[in-house]
Amino acid sequence: MHMHIELTPGIALLLATAPIGLGLGWYAWRCRSLPGALILAAVAPLATLWALTSIGEVSASTLERKLVWANIQYVAITLLPVGLLALSIDYSGRRPWLSPKHILPLCLVPMVTLVLLWTDPLHHLMRSTVWLDTTGAYATVGRTFGPWFWFHSAYSYALIAAALGITLATTMSTPYFYRRQPLALLVGIIIPSTWNAAFIFAPSVMPAFDFTPVAILVGGLFAAWGILQIRVFNLVPVARHTLVEDMADGVLVLDETDRVVDLNRSAQKLIGRPRTSILSRRIGECWDAWTQMAAPHAAQANQADLSLADDGRRRHYEVKWSPLIRHDRVVGRVVAFRDVTERVLMEENLRRQTLTDSLTGLPNRTLFMTRLEEAIHMARRRADAIFAVMVLDLDWFKVVNDSIGHHAGDALLRSVADKLKRCVREVDTVARMSGDEFMILLNSISGVRDVLPILERIREELRVPVYFRRQEITTTCSVGVVLWDHTYDDPEDLLRAADTAMYQAKKAGRDCHRIFDEEMHISVMRTLKAENDLRAAIRQNRFSLAYQPIVDLRTGTVCSLEALIRWHHSERGTIFPDEFIATAEESGLIVPLGEMALREVCDQMSRWRSGSSPAVHLPVSLNVSPRQLAEPEFAEAVAKRLDEWRISTNHLILEVTETAFVREPLKSKTAMQALHDMGVRLCLDDFGTGWSSLQHLTTFPVQQLKIDQAFISKMAPGNTFFEVVRSLVSLAQTLGLEVIAEGIESTEQWLLLQELGCDCGQGYFIADPMGPAEITAYLEDMERGSCFLPQTPKRYDTQKPTDPARRAPDIHTPAWRPQVSLAVERTP
User: Fold this and answer.
1) Whole-number Cα distances in Å, 513 to 430, 442, 481, 506
2) Which stretches in the chain have pLDDT values below 50?
3) What letters, b where the CB count within 10 A reaches 16 and e where it falls short, cover 767-797?
4) Rounded to 5 degrees, what are φ and ψ at 685?
5) 217-273 pLDDT, tens per residue?
6) Residue 802: its pLDDT value, please?
């Protein structure tokens, strides 16, 4: 009975711990969005488990039963240190650390401890000896600890020490006004840790029974107060003061008379005076920079810009002011200063990149055109405001890039930019158009006499050599000049005129200048009219295609057709390609014109297929401009068009000139490779007349080669052109290319090409270019074997009519006709 009375206070205390711990866990779970609350919700039930198992241990009558309850206690004892560490980590804002890959390894030692505890009679690693101790007021489990117990204890206290360190670091890094919460959590960890350590290492001064669960509950209450309590109303004034004082933006409070009522540290630093010399004084008296806000303030604006010099650097501020209203009356203003220097510098940098050339630092075309527009507006208002526009192009600049390198070319361009700026006045503008072209706007001149000295200075400056890595570089330039008059409508007209004059200087031998005159003006107007007519013709679809057969020179069979475009002009009649292709190339209209031609070819091949024409199986070749090849999605557009009309890719042959290998070679090669991969055949047109390297025949994916008619027309047995054609045919055959001869005009040329082993040929000797109906009839006649070769030469597609006397007189004799099998070759 005496023992029962002694146990009542302990059991009562432990029983009180259980519901309080469960209630604390439930409340923490409800507030689990707060840092640390979710882990506290898990730790509180562990403390409750420890308390309940402690009651079971005290109440048990035998040693065996007490050991069972003691072993169950270790579930909470082993996991609580891990929980305290997780609690401190979560509260400190490091929740990503609480992933399973980090927490599960920490639970390894507790799991091993539990296993060893329940199997202790086999190895005694946890308890070396165990007995029922009845020397005290109530019976307890007496034991001496084994080696693993001390390892487990050291591990547990190491986790608790880590939790204390993290919480302490969080406390020290928290502003002074907010340290109560982390301090409460720190106390909540220290209380149970200290009690448990004293119970283990100083049992003589502690109660006989372990009341650590009670200590955990007390610490948990401290932690809960720190985590779950938010003392808003007491912190608001302090928080507002701290917020305003620590703001990076400057804040001024002014009364109705612009006297400074209050300011924060940033504003004081901005004004650059002690606080006492600013307060109660008018802001204009203590800060000279306030005058920059006088005009916006007078205009009743609520925003202004401020620019200040600070240690040699200029800083920019965005200033905003808001009225202070009390009882519907304005009693003052709050002025905020935000440092926007980085934004302003970024905007200036972007503006500079947009309007200046990155290599030379000169204005680019966009900025030049803006200043040219301003000059035009000025000239329209004032009759004496004459100006001139100059376009300069460096002579042989490509040679510098190709021979010395692009870095040398860049150095030369920078040097030329500096020299040009030295040759003009401050009021003038020097700009870089692109590549090696520069533009100069000469303002406020009286006439040509003011331009000539500047041109001479430019020539003298450019004669001075530039040195790049001990390599001397000299250059000259071709200059086109145009003077303003009221006949020009816009800046583009002026620039076009100067550009035309510059090209005339190029044609005159370079290193000279040309001034735009009436003759050049007429030429420009003619070109402009041609472009406008061509643009209107494309819009109105005033084009058609004629088809010329290409035959096998060995058998005479038609192996393909070439589509040739015709422009049906309302005034000039039918116009052949040589009269408008160059204009289309220069103006960029070649791209829509080429798209239209491809669409017409696909449409016609589809019609032949539906009508069972003899041309249904014949491939059709179509000329493609180098500018089209440089288009980013040209190959995809061709594939889409063929798929739309359900045309097989092997029925289309695209002819490209050697210019494509020189102009945009990388883009051209990429497009040609894509076309080749999809099955479109490629033919190199006008071979021998361009500037490409023979290496291009091996690097670009072409399957056919066309020898230009300039060689065929002058070919005779044994002469130079005969040998050139022989070499070209031999080269093509060595590379596995099919050879086609253009411009066959006579029997002699046919026979010579046969002798040289040329594969195919075309020309007016064989057949004229014909419309779809005529080519169908022609092919049907050939199938019936009743078609005769033309007796007289017809007009060339791109050349003047040929003299009939050049044709052999016996081209239709029986001796000739067996050599030409008049049939249509059908491809599978």
Assistant:
1) 17, 16, 7, 9
2) 1-7, 230-238, 786-828
3) bbbbebeebbebbeebeeeebebeeebeebb
4) -90, 155
5) 676 666 666 655 544 333 444 455 566 777 788 888 888 888 888 888 888 888 888
6) 38
Residue 441: the pLDDT is 93
Nearest Cα neighbor of 459 from 498, 425, 510, 495 is 510
Distances (CA, A) of 207 to 69, 123, 212, 338, 777: 19, 29, 11, 64, 121
Identify any residues that bridge with 320 across adjacent strands, giving them in sequence order: 303, 336
The strand pairing partners of 141, in sequence order, are: 132
Residue 401: the pLDDT is: 80
Which of 730, 590, 587 is CA-nearest to residue 660? Answer: 590
Number of Cβ atoms within 10 Å of the Cβ of 527: 16
* Residue from 722, 660, 670 nearest 690 by CA: 660
R_g (Cα) of the chain, nearest Å: 48
The residue behind tokens 């020189």 is 662
- 8 A C-beta contact, residue 98 and residue 90: yes
Residue 89 · residue 98 · CB < 8 Å? yes
Token output for 77 = 């004892």
Report the pLDDT value the prediction gives residue 209, as an integer from 0 to 100.
60
Whole-number Cα distances in Å, 46 to 30, 51, 281, 618: 18, 9, 65, 89
Task: Give the C-alpha separation, 601 to 563, whole Å.
Answer: 7
DSSP H helices in 424-580? 448-463, 491-507, 518-540
- CA dist 118 and 120 (Å) reads 6
Q: What is the pTM of this model?
A: 0.47
Inter-residue contact 35 to 90 (CB < 8 Å): yes
